[in-house]
Amino acid sequence: MEWQYSGSVTKSGAELQRLVDDIILDDRFKKEDLVGFNVDREQRRLDEHQATGGAFSANDGWREASVLLHLPKPGLQQEDEELTPAFLVDKIWIRSLLDVVKTGFRDISARKYHWFPHRLFRTRATPEDPNAKPERLFTDVYNSDAMIREHEEVQKRPRNPEDPADVEYVVGGIIVYSDSTHLTNFGTASLWPIYAFFANLSKYLRFKPSMFAAHHLAYIPSLPASLLRFYEETYGTPASAAVIRLLKYDLMNKVWLLLLDAEFMHAFEHGVIIVCGDGVTRRVFPRIFMYLADYPEKCLVACLKTLARCACPDCTVDKCNFWKMGMKRDMADRAKNTRQDTGILQDLIARVRRWIYEDGTTPDSDHIRRTKLGFFSMAPVRSAFLQRFASFGCNLYKLFVPDLLHEFELGVWKGTFTHLIRILIAAGRDGVQKLDDRYSMIRTFGRNKIRRFSDNVSGMKKLAARDFEQMLKCAMPCFEDLLPEPYNTFVLDMLFELARWHALAKLQLHSESTVDALTTSTSTLGQAMRAFLRHVCSQYSTQELPKETQSRQRRKAVSGSNTRPATISLKHKAFTVLNTPKYHRLGDYARSIAETGTIDNKSTQAGEFEHRRVKQFYRRTNKNRAFGHQIALEVRRADIINKIKQSQTEPGKPRTKRRKPKRSSAGRGKHLHVQFEQAEPLPHTQPDRHYHISDEKRFPITLDNFLYENEGDPACENFVWELKAHLFRRLPGGEKLSLDYVPTLDDIFSVRIENNKMYRHKVLRVNYTTYDMRRDQDSINPRTHPDIMMLAPEGSSHPYLYARVIGIFHVEAYCAGESLDGTDDTDMEIIHVLWVRWFDLDPCAPGGFKARRLPHLMWAALDDGAFGFVSPDQVLRAAHLMPAFAHGQSDAALPGYSVARNEDEEDTDWNYHYVGMFVDRDMFMRYYGGAVGHQRGQTGKPAPAPVAPEPITRLAGEGYDDEVDEEFVDGTADDGEPMEDVQEQPLGSDGEESEANEQDGEIEDNGDGHDEDERVESDDSDDDAALGPEDGEAAVDEDEDELARLGFAAM
């Protein structure tokens, strides 16, 4: 403890525990090995390591590079671009891209690489339809059309005569990510890294930070202040904004020219011989399949002007037509106007650069805007990727795949949610306060699937992308009836379509049918968004939020404006999401799945995760201007140490999480659940088990005492009778009885419970096979995560039954006397039991995809078996039930106090609940139906599909006339006002939206970094005490050895 509380303050309790568990207590630890140890000397040994082969090769080391930026001067004619004054930008730290490829394929993780791409199919033949055609599945880059095409092209090449016959020719798939990031919460320290991932490695491993699969390629400097001083000293005037933008394009692409050097291009064309990590010699042909970045970064690499006329990096559709997303004519326009690199455009770029450098033309002059470059919103810079790959027929623009995180979660949905807040404010009353209260009452679910919402969701302060995702999943109950009809209907329809589209787009395993469903959902989403704009937004005069006003005032101050208004006025704010490139890109998602794999392969989340590692390395530097080199050294040291660790076969110990105890109030009766402060550790659950409950006897309670302490409680009426009837069916012979059989008095008396005791438990774990053929786990705790779902009997109108678990316990029971199978007393058995309160489906409020509403539940009536007992074997998985806030609370279903409610609940219930069928991908597919992983039940027999995969129908009714949106044709809304031309902005360093001047062609992202990655997927320092693992559980290691070993679960 003295070590922790001395020296650096960053040594947390978890790090101290890890030091003890993983180092000091390890059998291999010997203090004699540390005699004479010196940190500086050992670090120098790592830095000076010069091995050229094996796992610890130093050939992939870092080197410092520099580029020359030639400086144009508007109005000054010069002889040639190469003869203009130039500024040397140094301190560019890069690695050889080819050496990184060699290192990646020599790594021990290459044993898990997929060397030969393939098409994956599912068999749909059944006894009823034996001739059903197989259906193609899409999961990863290595079963996508793009990689299969490249592989076939490589196989057609003539073999190198020097290669032995057994040398395999394979494609080395590369995924690139770049973005700037702030390194500190305060100050200006930032880094602009480029990372590379290998597509041959499964995405389930590739994007796990613990796999260290991200390879650092380069750290790009921003334009230095010394360049601006040099420019002013050279020309006598400061550089204009247009010139600075041009130099930013040049800097980025010249760095990429350094990375795409002659060695890499030779390997691209002819391949490179590598002895891979699995010991097999292969000729690897590196191919870049995707470039992951946010919108400004994509424009920077592709040399496109941001938010200009043709703002999309994939097509040249005019931005005034972005609102048509999902229409048939929109899809036709995309196909017709795909971006292509042509010789004409490249000649024009060369000509325009001569105008700028030799004739002194301003880079953003009207003369240049009137050319085809201006028409297609292209900057007068030739992309490094075009220079290197154009001769091979590669289309640069296909690298810029959709990005769900920035385009939808932090783009379309965030913008829509923000405008809904504006509308609630404009509507008056207390809509915003109700919204905040409702979100704060949503239960958490799963392991970080739904976290605890703050008390001020509408403030949107320091929210990560995952927070916006969770807000969408829970939005419908929270927004219900906050606006009057008919606006409420339009809002709920739009929220349902947003949630459905998001769930389909984020599936980690797609089939041809789900891709078709996503295509249709894109169309219906467009309808719902346009209807919301036309019929709801036009009826409310909305103004910017207070945080938007403050941001606007700060921007004015930064811009140098000296005029300050006497009073701060609120600016009118229209709904402009439909005019953004992010909204327009939603139409490309379905098409990109077959081309380059499911959308999670394309998420920038992996790069944002890697930013955390860079920030950790920054803390170890001396924080001076040369910290880029120091971070590079830290990265190399960490890579070498990680390779040493990977070479050891002994698996690591499971991590555990410790949570602070939380005080709970005492109840007026005896509850069956175990209190928070009472510990009952549950050991690791094997993945092949369906459920896991402790068999310990720490918390016994006699039936007589339990009934005495809860006398008069309706929940405990007939408790013993119902319990023994349930046990009778589960004891030997009882499974043979029909479902209609009612146990007799003799049957009940024959059931004996040892010592008349129940043994309470804290947690039930349920393992299940997910839609994508993997194993996952839910934890069910009567205090925190009490809701469960089970398969409904055949012939039911709804596929599932729902219940709330009141208690988890086991009894030791047997049948006395002559048992069902003709023998004497049966053997004593430990029987696990769940005591539940049942929900009924509300017949008056239809839910599902056709109704575009969540399934609506009400409490079962007391005279209709409101309480009962179920076997844990019957539990399919945990359910996420959200109160129907708009329908209020009462005690009509259960009058007065009852142990069926938690201690912190009042003596009332929410009258209705909604089923959160969008809470995760697996839950969504249980309602959509037809998932591969759901084809077999827990018994191994084919399980009935919950619902047939239903086609997504177009929205019908008043306001949903999709193809004829005449009021948009001229760019006006219903109120006659022109639709605002959206100014989509990067996020500022204060965590709020920045609206800096991003006019046609301006790149706001200047490489100084921003804290968007903090909001994208930053870990909260204080996890909510109610989040899983449940109280007393040992946390499940994220790197589950069993799951990694099993891979896909048995069908």
UniProtKB/TrEMBL annotation:
Tell me the InterPro entries matching this sequence. Plavaka
Task: List compositional bias (Acidic residues) regions by residue number.
Answer: 969-983, 990-1006, 1014-1040
Chain segments carrying region Disordered = 543-565, 643-671, 934-953, 969-1040
Q: Where is the composition biased (Basic residues)?
A: 654-671
What is the name attached to this protein's record? Answer: Uncharacterized protein
